[in-house]
Amino acid sequence: MAALGLFAEPHIFPWLWLAFGLMTGSFLNVVIHRLPKMMERDWQAQCAELRGETLPHAEPFNLVGPRSRCPSCGHGITALENIPVLSYLALRGRCSACKTPINLRYPVVELLSGAAAFYCASRYGFGLAAVAASAFVWALIAASFIDFDTQLLPDAITLPLLWAGLLLALSGTFVDLRSSVIGAAAGYLSLWCVYWLFKLATGKEGMGFGDFKLLGAIGAWTGWQMLLLVILMSSFIGALVGIGLMVLARHGRNVPIPFGPYLAAAGVVALFWGPPLSRYYVAHLLG
Hints:
Distance between the termini: 52 Å
Order of helices and strands: HHHHHHHHHH
Radius of gyration: 21 Å
Largest sheet: none
Shape: globular
Oligomer: single chain
Number of strands: 0
């Protein structure tokens, strides 16, 4: 009990939770890299089963195994080479065996996860709110980077996030149950309607079904009152980034741009600062 009391100290808990957040970021890098590949393997197995075929035996591949390796030379990552951020700095951003540069994304994800943990611990203190808010941000980090890489938002992330938001609403941790349920339904249906209106008007799909589920999950956590803010912010940021890519990077109009990261960023803003932003909007822009 004394150790738990020490862990809960306001001046200690944020730093301990920061360390845990950095370690979580290391795990999120595994999720970001492996979950899409796991999904692809599962789809291949399902297609082979429908065709009556048997796929050749393959090495087990999941979030636990096999051991992480350098993608260039196959060098197994040791425990000392897997310390969040510090190992990247010590290795100077290169594989210890073949000296191939390590993607900067790895320490970035770890730093984002650690910073989110520190902020949540400092804001909410020791308790359910800090743990839940950290998990919310961590899930959105993983979903965003996967969407950037593959234009996929896995159900394995969005659906548990949705249910977690609804369950947390039972205790009123962030919003009440009524606001959460309406937020989940309205979040999903709003983008579902936009999807079908766009498809009927153009014959093209403007977004994926994963975006519907992600906004539904965000609505479950933040309540229906924040949905307009989330949609406006994500659309504005997405439009700016899309225009910038087309102008500066000559990104073709037909090349898909993932919308999930912008929804995720707006969802984080809504959870932490949504109410004052909404009051400012009503008071200064509509007043």
